[in-house]
Amino acid sequence: MEFGLNDILILFQVLWALNSGIHIKQFQPPRPVLVPRNNNSSIISAVDMGISNEEWERLQKALDWPIPDQEITHLIQSTSPVHSTFSIVGLKESYKVGEKISVNITARDHNNNLKRYGGDFFKAKLFNTELKASVYGEVVDHRNGTYSVALLLPWEGQAQVFVRLEHSSEVVQILKKYTESSFPRTHFNGYFEGSGPNKTRIREVVECNLKWGADGSWRKGNFCCEYKDIKTGTVWQCERPKKLSCDKLVRHSGGRLENPLNLLEQQLFSK
To answer: Which UniProt keyword terms apply here (predicted)?
Structure first.
C-alpha cells in the first residue's frame, strides 16, 4: 500500500506569558525518604515502596523541564509562533503504511532569533480530516531551542502535519511557579454567631481558607482558628473573630476569587 503525503500544514497557536523580573529555581524532587512502619520496629526503604534508585532517577528525568537560561523581561524574548518553524526530514512523494516521518521544530523569539534553551510545550500530530483520523507524536526536547518528532503513518491516503505551540517555555515557568506556590486563589467567608454582654446577639464574618501550601498555612501568624473536616480530613483556617471564640463558627460560604497573575502576566496570557 502506498501512502501519499502532501498539503503539509503548519498551524501555530499560542498562549504565552513571561516571568518578568522573577527568578525561578529549577524544581528538584526530593528523594524517597525512609518511612517508619506501624510497629516502629523497622523502616520501609525506597525499594520496599516499589521504587528502585534507577526508577527514581528515571522519574526525576521525566519530571525535569528546561528553564530559560536568562532573566526574561520582555515579550520579544519569548517563543514566537510566527517565527518558529518546522520541517519534514527527507520529505518524499509517497510512503508506505507503517513507516514514520521525522519532523524538526525550530523555536525562535519575536526578534526571529534562535532560542538557546528548551522548555516549549509543542504538540505535533498527523491527521486526515475526511477520514477523521489523527495520531500524535512524541516531541523530544533537545534543550537548545530545537525539537524532533517521529510520526507514525497508520492509514492509506492523504495526510497533513499539524504543529501547535501550546505554551512557550516562559509561560510554562509561570504556570509552574503558581502551581507549586501556596497562593490562595479562592477565598471563603466564615460566619460566627454567639451571645455577648446582656445576651446581645453577635454576628461576625471573617475570611477563611484551606490550610495548604509549603508552610502548611495560607497566611502566617498565630491568629486563626482551625477546623478539620471529619469526612475528608481537610483542615480549614479562619481568621480569629474579634469578639467571639473559635467554637462559634456556624457555617462558611464562597467568597472572592483572586487572580495570582500580575498585570504584565495577565496581558501576556491573553491571545
So the answer is: Signal
Question: Span 2-27+65-178: which CATH code?
Answer: 2.60.40.10
140's CB contacts (< 8 A; 6+ apart) are 147, 148, 149
For Cα atoms 220, 224, 227, give the angle at the middle one, nearest 5 degrees: 120
In the block, cell 526508577 appears at 55
Q: Say what the pTM is.
A: 0.61
Per-residue pLDDT of the chain (271 residues; tens, 9 = 90+): 444 433 333 333 332 322 333 233 344 445 555 444 444 434 445 566 677 878 877 777 777 777 777 777 788 888 999 999 999 999 998 999 999 999 999 999 999 999 999 999 999 999 999 999 999 999 999 999 999 999 999 999 999 999 999 988 888 887 887 777 666 677 889 999 998 888 889 999 998 888 765 455 555 555 678 888 888 888 888 888 988 988 999 988 887 877 777 777 776 676 5
Tell me the C-alpha distance between 19 and 103, whole Å.
Answer: 30
First vs last C-alpha separation in the chain: 43
